[in-house]
Amino acid sequence: MEQKQISLNVIARLPKYYRYLQECHESGANKVSSSNISSALGITASQVRQDLSNFGGFGQQGYGYDVQFLLEKLRNILGLNETHKAIIVGGGRIGQALSSYSGFIKENVIIKAVFDVELSHVSAPKDIEILHVAEMPEYVKRENIDIAIISTQKEFALSVAETLKNAGIKAIWNFAPIDINLGDDVAVENINMSESLFRLSYKMKKK
Amino acid sequence: MEQKQISLNVIARLPKYYRYLQECHESGANKVSSSNISSALGITASQVRQDLSNFGGFGQQGYGYDVQFLLEKLRNILGLNETHKAIIVGGGRIGQALSSYSGFIKENVIIKAVFDVELSHVSAPKDIEILHVAEMPEYVKRENIDIAIISTQKEFALSVAETLKNAGIKAIWNFAPIDINLGDDVAVENINMSESLFRLSYKMKKK
Questions:
Q1: Which of A140, A163, A183, B117 could form a disulfide with A145 if both were Cys (CB 3.0 to 4.6 A apart)?
Q2: Around A138, how many Cα atoms within 13 Å sit in the side-chain half-sphere?
Q3: Listed residue (A100, A109, A48, A101) closest to A78, CA to CA
Q4: Helix (H) or strand (E) holding A59
Q5: Which of B16, B178, B207 sits opposite A187 (nearest CB)?
Q6: Which value, in Å, is the radius of gyration of the alpha carbons in chain B?
Q7: A-chain residues within 8 Å CB-CB of B23?
Q8: Which of B14, B77, B199 shows the shortest C-beta gap to A189?
């Protein structure tokens, strides 16, 4: 299904719109105005109107946008109406925290297994398997795993990512403190906690 | 100490430079070229040279930049040469994972206590106190806490942030799945895990 071409700047804001609209929906709101969206997200109201018009969202004067309609549009564009199977690589505290992070279910990501080299150190909810990393490539192929969440130590992250790429993984969500880039074949998001902490330090210093 | 005014676009890249230079340093490199930095970070080499010249980093032709010199400059600008006392609010799995996240020490953040409403559910390394949230405002003032790491459920995050602001906190590092904004008084960094997952889903869909 071909979408109208949407610029990368708009794309970068879509997750913010989606999250805010989810909040509106959860609190029972059917309609939301561009000025509400604007003040919640710190984006100008005219920018909001322009962004939303890109995918057929047109607010009515004095009435606002239909929350359900926009959520459905955004779910389509962001691919959130598809369910993805995922594994976690690295069963330390971050990996274990992620394995029981309730937010996943809502986002249609199902954690199937946690991989580590020291199985005795790892615990996970009982519907999630705990397996040795040696079994990982075979498992990814056999179970059609889409997403790998990497939460290993820094020194193992890049080789784990390469192994996953060769096993045919489609996406990597990386929590190890080193940027992963696998070219055009694999979608990657790096959660840079240390960079965020550096920014926080900088902002504090400026106060 | 007044720095030469540096644009916000440059500031946004400084944490990336810092993290990459740390890696160079850890691997024993004394010099690094702008083209190495460029390919590691996906920034053009001319942009790298322009950025680094802002704070007195001038590479030598065929020789490169002095890693130690740039690290020291960046530590100063980012405020990483100061030590900060921090607390964690919300002792669930994410909070507990953060309390034992080894990366903190290096970034000069010392976790002093974890606050929750259900103390019996919380464990933490033995040099970190576990306390009830009712004691939090008093503790923040008495112990001169700079940074609060919020890892509560979404519905408590905003009121916890307000309480911390009133207690005089300087910075909030937020892991709850809702954006916190406290105006100009408090430095805030939001780690938006769900937005990152939405972006990953979008990139996967585009493959």
A1: A140
A2: 5
A3: A109
A4: none
A5: B207
A6: 20
A7: 178
A8: B199
Cα B113 to Cα B139, B176, B187, distances in angstroms: 9, 18, 20
Other Cβ atoms closer than 10 A to B9: 9
Hey, which residues does A174 pair with through a beta bridge?
A150, A190
State the pLDDT at residue B103: 65
Would an 8 Å CB–CB cutoff place B182 in contact with chain A? no
Provide, as residue numbers in chain B, all residues whose Cβ is less than 8 Å from the Cβ of A93.
96-97, 100-101
**Distance in Å, alpha carbon of A89 to nearest chain B alpha carbon:** 16
Helices in A27-66 by DSSP H: which ranges? 34-41, 45-53
> What distance separates the 2 farthest-apart alpha carbons in chain B?
61
Nearest CA in chain B to A15: B195
Query: Which residues on chain B are in Cβ contact (under 8 Å) with A80?
Result: 198, 201
Grouping H, G, I as helix, E, B as strand and the rest as coil, residue A100 is coil
Task: Give the C-alpha separation, A9 to B158, whole Å.
Answer: 28
The model's pLDDT over A168-188, given as tens digits with 9 standing for 90+, comes to: 999 999 998 888 989 888 999
Confidence of residue B66 (pLDDT cuts 50, 70, 90): very high
> In this structure, are residues B140 and B148 in contact, taking their beta carbons and an 8 Å threshold?
yes
Q: Is the dihedral of CA B125, B130, B136, B139 positive or negative?
A: negative
Q: Do the Cβ atoms of A198 and B107 come within 8 Å? A: yes
CA–CA gap between residue A10 and residue A195 (Å, rounded)? 24
Contact B19 A93 (CB under 8 A): no
B191–A197 C-beta distance less than 8 A: no
pLDDT, tens only, A153-170: 888 999 999 999 999 999
Helix (H) or strand (E) holding A140: helix A136-142
Q: Which residues of A161-190 are buried (b: 16+ CB within 10 A; e: fewer)?
A: bebbbeeebbbbbbbbbbbbebeeebbbbb
Please list every residue in chain B whose beta carbon sits closer than 8 Å to the beta carbon of residue A170. 204, 207
